[in-house]
Amino acid sequence: MKVAALQMVSGTQRSDNLAMARRLLEQAAAAGAELAVLPEYFCAMGLRDTDKLALRETPGDGVVQTFLALAAQELQMWVVGGTLPMQTADPARVHNTTLVYAPSGQCAARYDKIHLFRFDNGREHFDEGRVIEAGATPVQFDLPSRTGHTWRIGLSVCYDLRFPELYRLHASAGAELLLVPSAFTHTTGQAHWELLLRARAVENLAYVLAPAQGGLHENGRQTWGHSMLVDPWGQVVGARAQGPGVVLGELDAGRVRQVRAQLPALEHRVL
Question: Locate the CN hydrolase domain: which residues (predicted)?
Answer without folding.
Answer: 1-253
